[in-house]
Amino acid sequence: MRRQLLAIVAFLAAMALVPHLVDSEFWRNWVMMALFYALLGQAWNILGGYGGQFSFGHAAFFGTGAYCSAILHVHYGVNPWIALPAAGMAAGLVGAFIGFLSFRYGLRGSYFALVTLAFAEVLRILANTVPITGKGVGLLIPLEPGAANMQFADRTGYFYLILAFVGLALLLTLWLEHSRFGARLVAVRENEDAARALGVDVFRTKLAAITLSGALAGLGGSYYAQLFLYLDPGIAYGPAISVEALLVPIVGGMGTLFGPLLGSFALHGVSELAKLAFGEAPGLDLALYGVLLVLMVMFMPNGLFGMGRTTLARLLGGRRDA
Amino acid sequence: MVELQILLPAILNGLTTGAVYALIALGLTLIYGVLHIINFAHGSLLMLAMYAVFFLHAGLGIDPYLALPVVVPGFFALGYLLQRGVIARASHGRDENILLVTLGVSIVIENLARYFWRSDTRTIETPYSFETVDLGVAFIAVPKVVAFAGALLVTLALWWVMSRTDLGRAIRALAKERQGARLVGIDVDHIFAMSFGIGTACVAAAACLLLPSFYVSPGVGHTFVLIAFTVVVLGGMGSFAGALIGGLIIGVTESLCGLYLGESLGQIGIFLIFIAILLFRPTGLLGHRA
């Protein structure tokens, strides 16, 4: 645990230097977005990686967080810093609601994936219909630069904000790995019936995981809204975010502390390379993601992190499956 | 209260749409029944088939209905190869992996379509696109009537294949007991791929029947795939009769919800049914408890 904690601190410290050392605006932005998707991936990882419940609709949580903070800010004049925890809570509640319904009735595997997908779709249609979200036209958040409004003129503020979120997510996951709750969650993933037989409250464990996962994704949504100052139902609840959230940990390594981080940087590296090779073409980067998803499942089911770990262990002559 | 003159056409229109939903769902339910996987690529395969029909019409002037003998075998082959070459190979026999692989395949197909054909919505015009038939109580567009009849015919043909041929018997055997089927000499990988191929062929038939009255765009699969899932879940996973009845129910529900709630909110009725069924009766109307 101490080594992992040290690794987290070292990573955060190194990242904190990026705005000062990296001159190019483009690359600073690139690192920032990679961190943003790492946050979403870490949120998915808690439920999908550690808990084994594959959600295909994490946009439901992301979008709820985004809309919640934007609506509170635009329509009710609530300060974004106060709206932020509210957004996390709202998304967590949506998670608890979906979890309560689907886990209560014992939905697993593909059924669970379908339900999450359907909920994201219902929310997208709702956001398209009710006036408070601005319907299909979208919601514009007024530009009022100033740290007090969670809007940063020089973008460095945005960088440190997402870095703080990622740090929070990493520490939360570290705690999860070493807590009894985390142990119960992994037990549920490995064999639900056996876990139940050993006295694990399967329902409550999964419920807690989806709530936590939803809340983290909601924070990401709130951040997104403040960064781009615009939301519409397709951005907030569309499938792109759901896919990204699950792809990042799958590429990096599901159920590992640093998997989502690694996955996010790798994935966005590939997507930049694709842009260099093919130019800005709509759809091509996502198509590439799809290919990557298939290839990862085919050849590297443990993700980059698992792969790296195995190779390292083999090189050091240690256990093969360390 | 809406007048009967509006209600009846809405129900009839719903039935015709529902028959096509049933056809799409039939493919999905067949794949589920045999392979026990939910094929997330189903919608994008439908979209691909619709583009095939569109380009056959735009490029070679082939009527959508006459495209059936070309598109259906073509997509059967595509489905067969997809299962054998990609899905079976990538999944290592684990259900979660199959789920992710079919999702990956759907992302690839959909976004390649977006890349090559842009996001434009395309329609084709046929001489009969705007013809209607007088059914006594209402006027229904000719393509919709054809789609209804066609969907029923394909369902019937599929039922015949499943119950009267060796292939159908092998598929059913495999659906019931994988190990036992292998022991009596059924080539499991081949039959899996055949099932996937037939499921994809259903989608191709649906595309031919849909296009005279519907548009095609890279995202069109989404419109149908969640509906098809709903139909399958409503009718009972793996049940053919269930898919047919489920399709008709969903078609009518959609039509009526659209009438009462408006075009945009109308879709929500379907998803609410979907979620409710998954939660309260996951076996569906005609399904068996797993």
Give an overview in words:
The complex is a heterodimer of chains A (322) and B (290). Chain A has one domain (2-239). Chain A is an all-alpha fold and 322 residues long. Chain A has helices at 2-21, 25-50, 59-76, 80-104, 109-129, 156-178, 180-190, 192-197, 202-228, 233-237, 239-252, 259-278, 284-299, 303-315; strands at 139-140, 230-231. Chain B has 290 residues and is mainly alpha-helical. Chain B has a single domain (4-280), classed as ABC transporter involved in vitamin B12 uptake, BtuC (Orthogonal Bundle). Chain B is built from 11 helices and 2 strands. The relative contact order of chain B is 0.20. At the A-B interface, helix 4, helix 5, helix 11 and helix 13 of A face helix 3, helix 4, helix 9 and helix 11 of B.
Compile the SSE list and pairings.
The complex is a heterodimer of chains A (322) and B (290).
Chain A: H1 2-21, H2 25-50, H3 59-76, H4 80-104, H5 109-129, E1 139-140, H6 156-178, H7 180-190, H8 192-197, H9 202-228, E2 230-231, H10 233-237, H11 239-252, H12 259-278, H13 284-299, H14 303-315
Antiparallel strand pairs in A: 1-2
Helix pairs in contact in A: 1-6, 2-6, 2-9, 2-11, 2-12, 3-4, 3-5, 3-9, 4-9, 6-7, 6-9, 7-9, 11-12, 11-13, 11-14, 12-13
Chain B: H1 4-35, H2 42-60, H3 68-91, H4 95-117, E1 132-134, E2 139-141, H5 142-164, H6 166-176, H7 178-183, H8 188-210, H9 220-235, H10 240-261, H11 263-280
Antiparallel strand pairs in B: 1-2
Helix pairs in contact in B: 1-5, 1-8, 1-9, 1-10, 2-4, 2-8, 2-9, 3-4, 3-8, 5-6, 5-8, 6-8, 9-10, 9-11, 10-11
